[in-house]
Amino acid sequence: MKYAIIIPDGCADWSIESLGGRTPMQAARTPNLDMLAQTGIVGRSQNVPTGMSPGSDVATLGLLGYNPSQYYTGRAPLEAAAQGIELGVHDWAVRCNLVTIERDVMKSFTAGHISSEEATLLIAALNDKMAPDFPVNLQFYSGVSYRNLLVIRDHVPLSVTTQTYPPHDYTGQKIADVVPSGDGSCLLRGLMDASRLIFEGHPVNRQRIKAGKLSATQIWLWGIGQKPQLPLFANRFSATPIHGAMITAVDLLRGIASLIGWEVINVPGITGYVDTDFAAKGKYAAESLKNHDLVCVHVEATDEAGHEGSVEKKVKAMEDIDTFIVPPVLEALKSYGDWRLFVSPDHPTPTAIKTHTSDYVPWLLAGSDIAPSAASAPTYDEETARHSKFRYNKGCKMLGQLFIHK
Ligand SMILES: [Zn+2]
Predict the structure, then answer these.
(1) How many helices (H) and strands (E) does the chain have?
(2) Ligand 1 centre and the CA of 205: distance in Å?
(3) Tens-digit pLDDT profile for residues 326-366
(4) Domain residue ranges of the chain, discontinuous segments joined by +
(5) How far apart are the CA of 275 and the centre of ligand 1, in A?
(6) pLDDT of 256-311, one tens digit each?
(7) Domain 2-72+229-403 is in which class?
(8) C-alpha 314 to ligand 1 mean position (Å)
(9) From the CA of 278, how far away is ligand 1's center (Å)?
C-alpha cells in the first residue's frame, strides 16, 4: 500500500462576492480533485485546538495526527530542527528577529527586510561580543534575513508560562506591553537590551542608514520552546512501519518532518509562493514513492495568496495543484497497486481577513479500497464538506483513518 498527503496550505476560505458567492475552492476548476471526491470521502476537521493560535506549526501538527495540546512546545524548536540544530533536553530555542524599534515603537519586525549577508554579520557580533558577557551558555544562529535563532544551552528558569510576543503582530505599536514577561523573562529582556549597544554604530547599520535603509536596532526574542517529544511517524498508525517523505519550501514543515522521522526531499525551483514549480513538486513526489511508503506534498502558495488577499492567485494556485501535482501523484500511487490519498489544508486563510483562522477545513480521502458512498461528494470544497457526516472536532484524530483498512 502506498500513501500520499497533499496539503494546500490555507486554501479553505469564505464565500466571496467577486466569485458570485463561491469560495476560491469552489471557483477553481479542479476536475481531478472533484473526481477523487466523487469516488472517495469528503469530510472536515478542526486542526487547531480551542485556545491555541492558528499558526501553521500548530495546525500542521494536528493535521499530521499529533495533538498540538500535547506535543506543541513552541515555534523556535521546530525551526531549529529545520536547520539541523540539535537541542538537548534542557536547551531552549528562541526565535531571534532583527527588528527596527524607534521611540519604543515597533517600526519594522524585519529590520527593513535586512539581507541574509548583513544579518549574518550582526549575528556574529552577538556571538563574539555579547554571549561571553552573560552567565549562561548562548549560541546565536543566523537563518534567512531577519529570521534567526538563539539557543540557550543551560538550565535557565524559563518555563512554558514565560510570555513572549510575535513582533509581526505589533507593527506600529508601542512595545512596552509586549516585551517578554513571566518566568525567566529578565534574561530575555537583558539580551534584547544588550543587543542595542552592540548594533548601535555597527558597520552594517552605518551602511544601511547611509543608503537610506532602516537599521537593525536590536533583537526581538519570541516563540521560545524546548525540543518537542514527537513519536516517530513510522509506527504511529501502523504495525508495519510507514516510511515517509516530505516535499515543502517552508522551514517549519521541514522541521516537523525531520522530527517525526520523514526524509525531506529537496526539489529545485520551489519557492513557497504562487510562482513555485508545481510540476517539479508533482514529479519529485511521484518519484519519491519508489523509496517511501508515503509522500506528503505541502504547497504554501495558497496560504500566501490568502495573506495577500488575492482571490485570483488562490484560485490559480488550487488549479495548478490540480493540474500539476494531483495527476502524477495519483498515477504513481496506482502503479504500485493499492493506494490511498488524503488532501487537506492545515487551516483556512480567508482572503477577506488575510490571516489564519481556527475553523474547520475540508478534506478528501480516496483510495483503491474506498468506494463511492453517501460521504462522496460532487466536488471537493468547504460546502460539500459541511454537509458530510464525517466531522472531527479534534483534527488530530483524522489522519489515523488513512491507515485503517476494513
Ligand atoms: Zn500563513
Answers:
(1) 14, 13
(2) 30
(3) 999 999 999 999 999 999 999 999 999 998 999 999 999 99
(4) 2-72+229-403, 82-225
(5) 16
(6) 999 999 999 999 998 888 999 999 999 999 999 999 999 999 999 999 999 899 99
(7) alpha beta
(8) 13
(9) 19
